[in-house]
Specification:
It is a single chain. The protein is α/β, with parallel strands linked by helices. Helix content is 50%, strand content 11%. It starts with a helix and ends with a helix. Residues 137-266 form the Thioredoxin domain. This is Thioredoxin family protein.
């Protein structure tokens, strides 16, 4: 019993210290880096900027904070082994110190499509302690952002405001999913239980979509979708942030197929 209590206390102590290191790293990033590196911009908008608009949309000369976190943690050139957290911290620290001391585009882990638009970075020396705190910040960035992200899932009431929905979607650079459902729909309930209410699915949707649930027995579909609705529930309508219909998906879907729907509309 005493051993179990010790393990729990140690785990709490470790978690608290990791959180403290992340917060200190975040503060350091805001003090030393945020003036140049812009805050979060959705990857959908970043892809449009670099791959479709030749950087004319955002005119970025330096990567955003989420681009840095993604390059370090999740890109094909990511630093370290995701399965070895302790060693990964050390490797990220070393990369940050070495790269900042001698910024060389040939050693950059940033996306190649974006590199040609970035201005030359001046050398910057950081201490071992600063490198460790920044490493902790980047390692905790994604989890912290998902935890604090405003919930994108909404159930529309009869007095919804289309303009406000579009304003929110455009401000966040997100597409819109309208989910036509009914309280008497068996397949809707099953899909909500098996797919829509799963945490990883909700997190994936929140990253790039505003999700609107509409009970079609009581609330009219927004954005003129009634003319596209064939009466089947569930039906999913995917729209741009401006309210333009991209695709319609009638019927229930398993998790893998629904995630593919989310991916193919970005």
């Amino acid at each position: 019993m005493i051993k179990k209590a010790f393990i729990i206390l140690f785990a709490c102590f470790l978690s608290t210290n990791l959180f403290a290191d992340f917060q200190e790293g975040k503060k350091l990033f805001e003090q030393k880096c945020a003036e140049c590196h812009k805050g979060f911009i959705s990857f959908k908008k970043l892809k449009e900027n670099f791959y479709e608009r030749n950087n004319k949309l955002l005119n970025l000369e330096i990567p955003t904070e989420n681009m840095l976190a993604w390059a370090i943690m999740d890109s094909s050139k990511k630093i370290g082994d995701p399965n070895d957290v302790d060693m990964r911290v050390v490797e990220i620290e070393e990369y940050l110190k070495n790269y900042l001391a001698n910024p060389d585009v040939n050693n950059s882990i940033c996306d190649q499509a974006a590199l040609k638009y970035y201005k030359k970075k001046e050398p910057l020396k950081i201490s071992d302690e600063e490198a460790e705190l920044l490493a902790q910040y980047f390692m905790g960035y994604k989890a912290d952002r998902l935890k604090n992200m405003p919930k994108a899932n909404k159930e529309l009431s009869s007095n919804y405001n289309e303009k406000e929905i579009l304003k929110e979607a455009q401000a966040q650079g997100k597409h819109i999913i309208v989910y036509a459902t009914s309280k008497t729909c068996y397949f809707c309930k099953k899909m909500e239980k098996d797919v829509l209410n799963l945490e990883d699915v909700k997190e994936t949707m929140s990253e790039d979509y505003i999700f609107l649930k509409v009970d079609v027995d009581y609330v009219s579909l927004p954005f003129g979708l009634k003319k596209h609705f064939k009466g089947m529930t569930p039906t999913f309508f995917v729209l741009t942030s401006g309210g333009e219909l991209l695709n319609t998906y009638p019927g229930a879907w398993i998790k893998s197929d629904f995630l593919q729907i989310l991916k193919e509309n970005l």
